Amino acid sequence: MSRKYMLTYCLRSIVGDWFQTIVDKDVSAQNAQALAANILDWLISSGVVVAERDDCVLGAESGHRPGPAVGAVVDSAAGDSSFRDLWTNGLAIVTERSVFDAGQGDPIAVSCPRCGTATRLVDDCYELIPEVWELFGSGIHAWAEGQDDAVVPCPSCAQQVEPTDWIWADDYFALGHLGFKFWNWPPFRPDFVAEFGRRLGDHRIALVEGKL
After folding, report:
1. N or C: which end of the chain has fewer CB within 10 A?
2. Closest by alpha carbon to 136, among 114, 108, 97?
3. Residuewise pLDDT in 10s, the chain (212 residues)
4. Minimal CA–CA distance to 29: which of 98, 77, 87, 131?
5. How far, in Å, CA of 108 to CA of 119, rounded?
6. What is the pTM for the complete model shown?
7. Taking a C-beta distance cutoff of 8 angstroms, is the pair 110, 135 a contact?
8. Who's near 107: CB < 8 A, 6+ residues apart?
9. Helix (H, G, I), strand (E, B), or coil: what is residue 45?
10. Other Cβ atoms within 10 Å of 81 Cβ, number
11. Closest CA to 98 of 167, 17, 178, 199
12. Terminal Cα-to-Cα distance of the chain (whole angstroms)
């Protein structure tokens, strides 16, 4: 579990609603719904969430509340089971082209998957650097609008990189067609995230943590 999430989770009850989104970065638009159904069947059969849907998530009409075995997949060191009693405590599944983000704040840096060089996106006052952010922001926008051939040239090595391949600091962004957003749950156990990835076909995944 990251220090960032532990801090934000501890403050959740004071300042707002928190989420963890497991994003499949590789699944195609055509296969997203079928894969989502398989994962949901696994989560229900293992007792992580319940099958019934109700009004327990934000940004969607309904979701799935925590199941009886949820304690096995979250970090008990967090020492907080009160999320079970919250109104917003469910799983929402997104099966469409989406830019998943961490909510508040700005991305700090992004690394090139080709040369490994990190490009800083903010200045010393943590304000976005317009000319740098415009390069990446335009690429993300183009992809979100359906341009599968959109690329962003690396400022360091000049190679053309697809928006889905950039590595964002703290997983601030993740682009894909399938995401599982869990509202107000304690941090996940690493083995749960690993099993999630395996059941997604060993696709590349990102764990986007944030708040509203």
Report:
1. C
2. 108
3. 444 444 444 444 445 899 999 999 999 999 999 999 999 999 999 999 999 999 999 999 999 999 999 999 998 665 556 888 899 999 999 999 999 999 888 999 999 999 999 999 999 999 999 999 999 999 999 999 999 899 999 999 999 999 999 999 999 999 999 999 999 999 999 999 999 999 999 999 999 999 88
4. 98
5. 9
6. 0.89
7. no
8. 121, 122, 168, 169, 172, 173
9. helix
10. 13
11. 178
12. 20
Residue/partner pairs of 6-10 with CB below 8 Å, 24 or more apart: 6/78, 6/187, 8/209, 8/210, 8/211, 9/78, 9/80, 9/186, 9/187
Q: Do 18 and 183 form a contact (C-beta atoms < 8 A)? A: yes
- Both tokens of residue 189? 């156990």
Q: At what angle do helices 190-199 and 32-45 cross, to 10 degrees?
A: 140
Tokens, residue 95: 């099966």
The CA distance from 210 to 19, in Å, is 6
